[in-house]
Write a structure and sequence with these properties.
Structural class: mainly beta
Number of strands: 11
Oligomer: single chain
Shape: globular
Order of helices and strands: EEEEEEEEEEE
Distance between the termini: 37 Å
Strand content: over 45%
Radius of gyration: 13 Å
Largest sheet: 7 strands, mixed
Amino acid sequence: VQLVESGGGLVQAGGSIRLSCAASGFAFETVSMSWLRRAPGKALEGISRVTRTGRSTTYADSVKGRFTISRDNSKNAVYLQMPDLTSEVTVTYYCALDKNLGQGTQVTVAS
């Protein structure tokens, strides 16, 4: 299993960012995928999940109504769209297949 996140970086407060995760080494189209995040000093938090077909998604209350998870099975990729970012801490976002996580990508929102 290999998961490689990308798309993180510095974004201005109120701005948007789209994270991507390239998956390989398994039958991507047969599994649900998730995004998790870790803020400094906090536990790893599962924030969103998408079923194998992409038709069903779930979100943590902390991001519900704001973030959007999606996937493209033709590209073995899963995405996380994050609009209107306001947090001023650097948060690391991880793509996950069960307990397998990628290396993470950091998002910093500048005020």
